[in-house]
Q: What sequence folds into this?
């Protein structure tokens, strides 16, 4: 469980990135923070592994205040996946994945065995092990990033727009892979995106943020779509636009139309 | 053309080759001065450059200082140092170290600074300590630019090391100054050719080192990681 207790972040120049934010991200679930760029979501994520220190409030992992931990040790037991994968360009794929286990004293042979297993897990051909990141496609690099984040078998996985820089087809593929992984692994995932569709797809809990990391609404996708808290949320999730759907009867079937009247599909027969 | 032929004759003359004042001995001295001056400069400039690059502090001071150091006329430094330190090797060594210093410092510092900040940030996020970020990410990825800096320092120093003879030390400058005083121009030209040959040899050696480094350490520069 990750808990934000009234955290705030004000930069020395007076910019308020996060005003006053409280949230519980439950264990084994995916919590998605979604908002436009500059809403403070990345700042919140980086508070968890102490890449950013809050200027007020505290972040807790289970019953541990992260401010009391050694940041280096803390980061080694939290998986971190970034937008551009952030792979080390001078290390082979296998060594990139094995980075954290090697730091924590796992032998090279054991770390490599584990890295190869992780490559299978994230759907990377083992033949890529000896390549350098620069020789991989964006989607492959991102898979390496996910494998690296999982290498130390952390309970918590922080994902900062991990699929933001890949093309839509690869993104859809990676999203499905993440859902599959999560069904197997049950990590506590804190996921950041600006894409509401991605949030609805991946999030058990979705948190919609306004500027200053002000929570506009938090809840399951179902709750948010059924009862948007206000105009801002309704517009953000696309109600009144593409996500304002219609049902039309055609003979004995009901079909669903999107906001601009394009048919999306049939309503299944079971009642 | 005549001078050139005479100069080559001078170089190939066995009478000039051997002995403490022979071509080989002076060439070895010259080589040694260059290597020692660059090594001493690197001993200070490399850690300092990495420190500035790693902490991102003191950048302004480094830029101004190395810029100013580049502008120092080496002959002036040598004369000044010679007045204080006297005849011998100390003064030219000091001047050569000062000459080598800015290029190496800039190479070390720029090598670290040119690394994609995302790479460094993600290394920290994974749980590398500051020291591990330096030794496992910044130093290897900064290596190509550092070697470039050392290379240009070598070339500057190998050419300027002729000045050592100006205050009584050895090196290929001996032949230059001797030739100047005795109006033996072929000898001067021969000495110049030898310096050029040494410089070219250094440059070829560095080209090979850089080629090797490029093969061993794939680039972490911004344009390559995009």
A:
């Amino acid at each position: 469980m990750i808990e934000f207790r009234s955290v705030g972040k004000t930069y020395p120049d007076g910019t308020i990135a996060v005003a006053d934010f409280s949230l519980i991200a439950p264990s084994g679930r995916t919590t998605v923070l979604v908002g436009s760029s500059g809403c403070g979501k990345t700042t919140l994520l980086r508070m968890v592994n102490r890449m950013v220190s809050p200027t007020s409030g505290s972040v807790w992992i289970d019953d541990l205040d992260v401010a009391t931990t050694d940041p280096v040790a803390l980061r080694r037991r939290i998986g971190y996946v970034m937008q551009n994968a952030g792979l080390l360009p001078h290390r082979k794929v296998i060594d990139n994945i094995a980075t954290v286990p090697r730091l924590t004293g796992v032998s090279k042979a054991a770390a490599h065995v584990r890295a190869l297993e992780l490559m299978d897990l994230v759907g990377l051909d083992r033949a890529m092990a000896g390549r350098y990141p620069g020789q991989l496609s964006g989607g492959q690099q991102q898979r390496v990033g996910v494998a690296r984040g999982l290498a130390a078998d952390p309970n918590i996985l922080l994902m900062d727009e991990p699929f933001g820089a890949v093309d839509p087809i690869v993104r859809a593929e990676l999203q499905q892979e993440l859902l599959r992984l999560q069904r197997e692994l049950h990590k506590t995932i804190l996921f950041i995106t600006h894409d509401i569709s991605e949030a609805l797809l991946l999030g058990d809990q979705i948190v919609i943020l306004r500027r200053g990391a002000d929570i506009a609404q938090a809840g399951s996708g179902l709750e948010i779509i059924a009862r948007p808290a206000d105009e801002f949320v309704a517009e953000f999730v696309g109600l009144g636009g593409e996500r304002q759907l219609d049902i039309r009867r055609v003979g004995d079937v009901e079909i669903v139309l999107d906001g601009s009247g394009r048919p999306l599909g049939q309503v299944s027969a079971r009642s | 053309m005549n001078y050139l032929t005479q100069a080559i004759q001078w170089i190939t003359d066995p009478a000039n080759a051997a002995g403490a004042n022979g071509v080989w001995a002076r060439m070895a001295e010259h080589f040694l001065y260059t290597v020692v001056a660059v090594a001493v400069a690197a001993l200070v400039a490399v850690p300092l450059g990495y420190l500035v690059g790693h902490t991102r502090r003191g950048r302004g001071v480094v830029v101004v200082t190395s810029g100013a150091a580049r502008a120092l006329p080496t002959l002036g430094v040598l004369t000044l140092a010679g007045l204080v330190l006297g005849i011998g090797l100390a003064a030219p060594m000091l001047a050569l170290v000062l000459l080598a210093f800015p290029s190496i410092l800039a190479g070390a510092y720029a090598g670290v600074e040119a690394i994609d900040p995302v790479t460094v940030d993600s290394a920290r996020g994974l749980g590398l300590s500051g020291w591990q970020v330096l030794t496992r990410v910044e130093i290897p990825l900064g290596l190509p630019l550092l070697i470039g800096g050392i290379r240009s320092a070598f070339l500057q120093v190998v050419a300027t090391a002729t000045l050592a003879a100006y205050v009584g030390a050895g090196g290929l400058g001996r032949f230059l100054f001797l030739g100047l005083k005795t109006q033996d121009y072929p000898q001067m030209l021969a000495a110049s050719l030898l310096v050029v040959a040494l410089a070219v040899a250094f440059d070829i050696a560095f080209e090979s080192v850089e080629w090797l480094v490029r093969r061993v350490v794939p680039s972490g520069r911004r344009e390559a990681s995009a």
About this structure: The interface with chain B takes residues 49, 51, 72-77, 80, 82, 84-90, 99-100, 103, 132-134, 148 of chain A (CB under 8 Å). Chain A has a mean pLDDT of 93. Chain A has ten helices and 13 strands. The first helix of chain A runs from residue 41 to 48.
